[in-house]
Design brief:
10 helices; 13 strands; six-stranded parallel sheet; about 300 residues; alpha/beta; seven-stranded mixed sheet
């Protein structure tokens, strides 16, 4: 049986990425609305009633409007996957990070409404939640998150600036320290102290690094680097997409890492760079901000929601 999927906002970066990935899934048919009816509520409502799932690739306010439109269908309402930030901390939506904790994938399978995670939160939560659940990192510990992404994660305006040569090679942004990803990070990493999040963008298309520095001797158990690695590996044991490289890894051996190695994949790598003499460690997640950080995660969630392998 073929599942029908409507991407509401398919012309954006995430929508295009989802459509491209779904083209390789034989049991899914992506249907589109006539371009001149994209803003026609009745046409969109009729489209929603005819499909199994709708992916919302829209600004937050528009995503909320589409959600209300779908809800008006009652029993005919399709399953929703929201790629915006509108519903990521809404308790009525299931958070779409399948590997986050045991049982999360099953929650996604059963959910009528799933919120697709943000790219920065995906890497951050993957690094922190396992350590908090293992009792290594206190939930109230002050955390600083530094991250860099390719410019494709910044939306249409940023992409155009970089491709026209009108943007700097590197810049830190969000220095008002009110980035919209912070509530998502706090909620799903299980942090009780608001973290400091310092994002940045580089003059390259895609690829992401998320890093969290830690003073190991300031943690209750004074853990060693190996303890952090063990906790991460245990948490993600059996995952096809998330790995924790160890002995023989080139990045760990060289003490340096670049952000583009996982581009055009749905994988994520977690590393612990440590100096046990100094009691210092830096947790690093590497992923494609358009893959596991966006479109790849969306397709993974859709497959779970539609009962596909």
């Amino acid at each position: 049986m073929t599942a029908r999927v409507f991407i509401d906002g398919e012309a954006g970066t995430t929508g295009l990425g989802i459509r491209e990935r779904l083209a390789h899934v034989p049991s899914v048919a992506v249907v589109s609305i006539d371009p001149d009816k994209r803003k026609d509520p009745e046409a969109r409502k009729a489209m929603m009633a005819s499909v199994d799932a709708v992916v919302l690739c829209l600004p937050d306010d528009a995503a909320k409007e589409s959600t209300a439109l779908a809800a008006s269908l009652g029993d005919q309402a399709p399953r929703l996957l929201d790629a915006s930030t509108a519903h990521r901390v809404d308790p009525d939506w299931v958070y779409g990070f399948a590997e986050m904790t045991a049982g999360q994938a099953d929650l996604i399978r059963k959910a009528k409404r799933v919120s697709n995670p943000g790219c920065y939160p995906t890497g951050t939560i993957a690094l922190l939640r396992p350590l908090i659940e293992a009792g290594i990192l206190p939930a109230d510990h002050p955390i600083t998150i530094n991250a860099v992404s390719g410019y494709s994660g910044g939306g249409k305006s940023m992409i155009e600036q970089h491709e026209r040569g009108q943007a700097p090679n590197f810049e830190i942004y969000g220095l008002g320290l009110e980035h919209k990803h912070v509530p998502e990070i706090s909620t799903y990493a299980k942090l009780t102290t608001r973290p400091m999040f310092v994002p940045s963008v580089g003059h390259y298309h895609q690829g992401m690094l998320v890093s969290v520095p830690l003073h190991l001797d300031r943690l209750p158990r004074a853990p060693r680097t190996v303890d952090l690695v063990h906790a991460l590996r245990k948490h993600f044991e059996g995952s096809d997409l998330i790995t924790v490289p160890g002995e023989g890894d080139a990045a760990l051996a060289s003490g340096k890492i670049e952000p583009e190695a996982l581009n055009n994949t749905d994988k994520m790598e977690l590393r612990v760079f440590g100096n046990d003499v100094r009691n210092h460690a830096v947790l690093v997640a590497r992923l494609d901000n358009l893959g596991k950080g966006a479109s790849g995660a969306a397709v993974q969630n859709l497959k779970l929601m539609l009962g596909l392998k």
